[in-house]
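Entries read sequence, tokenised fold; example below:

***
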Amino acid sequence: MKQALADALQKRGYETLTPVQTAVTASELADADLLVSAQTGSGKTVGFGLAIGDSLLGEDEVFERAAKPLALVIAPTRELALQVKRELQWLYAEARATMASCVGGMDMRDERRTLERGAHIVVATPGRLRDHIMRKSIDLSELRAVILDEADEMLDLGFKDDLEFILGHAPETRRTLMFSATVPKSIATLAKSYQKNAVRVSTVAEKSQHTDIQYRALSVSARDMENAIINVLRFYEAPNALVFANTRVMVNRLTTRLSNRGFSVVSLSGELSQAERSHALQAMRDGRARICVATDVAARGIDLPNLDLVVHAELPTNYEILMHRSGRTGRAGRKGISALIVPPSARRKAERILQGAKVTAEWAVPPSADEVTAKDRERLLADPAWHEEINEKDQVAVDELLSHFSPTQVAAAYLRIYTAKQSAPEELSAVVSRDAKDAKPRRAADFGPTIWFSVPGGHAAGTVPGRLLPMICNSGGITKHDIGAIKIHPDASFFEIKLASVQGFKKALGPDMTAEDNVVVTELKGPPADVPYERSSSPKPWADKKPRAKEKPSAPIEWNDAPTPKQRKPKPSEGKPYAGESKPKYKPKTAAQARPEGVVETFKKKPSAAVDVSKPYAGKSSKFAGGPGSKPSGKPGSKPSGKPSGKPSGKPGGKLGKYTGKANPKVGKPGPKVSKQKFDPGKPKRKPS
């Protein structure tokens, strides 16, 4: 060990080294890579600071002018990184080492300027250090040692890629030291990849329960969890205490609750800025705050002075987190208490976590209000101020007080002032375990002796147990656990009360034995006779009403909401053939009309029938003319096949004459040529009449 480091330890008050510090400073491990596992609070920070001393200083006792970094310490959180920096500053103060930090939340420009001026040791978080490497604001070419503090936590937080990137830019001739509370498979794999013939160092204390920490599992009801935390803090009155929660919402809730109860409290969670975190921890170190409510971000590496109590307001997710949380206390030879708040629904989970951590916890209930008050008086009597000598200045005030008040009055006033400075303890309800809920209902014999009472009003008055029970409890000052059976008869109601609660019940009712709404309660000499339940014979409120008349069966509902179609008017049948009779489907031909075999007749046009022009489209006409009453050829929407070349002759109302145009085709020949003019869809196909 370098003399400069030994002098620093002596000034700090170190007399002997811890087991992990002794193990890592062995002479045979001066140049070896180390994989160290030790429990929290064992002095790992000073240990690796001593381990790399020879590698950094060489034959010198002090450092030369700082240039490129010689050592790199990587920590998972900002708080731990800054704490490591403070520890190494006093350890290497005599060696004149220059320190620098690269952590998230700080001004990166200030960090860059510090690195440009030079630093011997750099303490950083993985993400911020990778940014500096990518921006080429730090040069790792002259590194002699790299320390990974809380390596398992860094892997759990997802920094594996960042660590591989950083170690890939470090020179291969470096020493690599990994410190971790446990060595899971992931840590072993990382060590195998980036360490050369690493030596495994494990302290004996790691294998057994931390003897300086007392574990207590406190069973509380679900509604009294916060009240139990208040009583635990008041009972122990630790100089510094940590209360752990799993979420930021719970941290804010507990911080507000404790602050309203008069506790000096600060919070520590991931949503706070680096400046807010630093101020919170500094308030704990200065004594301005006594309680810190934090998430697991503070469970790693935070070292607070006089931290004697750790409260787990919410159970951790696994036993490793439990060990890291609890490891904040019981450090440097001090005794500590780790209290777990366990509701009935989480008892099995707590047992599994304690079993996984291989620790033995004392199962108990939280301190009651009376126990907290008794503890306060015990601390009051044990205060050393009672045994201090009275100086002349205080004697004048004492004489003046005694001249105005008696010693009894002075003592009572002092007790009231002392009590007013403390937060009042909370009343806690009895804990009902899950096994008790699943147990069979209690029998009447288990309830003990009882006294029966009666009140007027039964089924006929609409009395039900759900309304009678609150009235009894509120008027008599008892709980539902003091009430036995309840019987509702037609004209009266009966209930039994535990004999031990009868006197208080009567005292609450008064001499008139009157409950709410001037209901008179009567004490009975014995249980009431069992009366079979009968329906009330009182007339029903609807009995005087006339019975409803039978309604006629309604017509079936037509669910089709489509409009009813309009019926067409019948067409006039005058002048039409086959009027009133069905048209024959087939009319056989005569012998004269029959065509001989092998003779093919040419197509002959049928003569057009007479059409009444007063009735548009009333008759049949030629296919080719396109005049009134004509039937268009082809499909609807097709192009017209030409114009008629002639005009019909004759007077309106008479018979139509023959067409005289050249466009009239001959029988048996194809029709006229189709006009090449494009069809305009906007024009009607035929003129309206």
The longest strand covers residues 213-219.
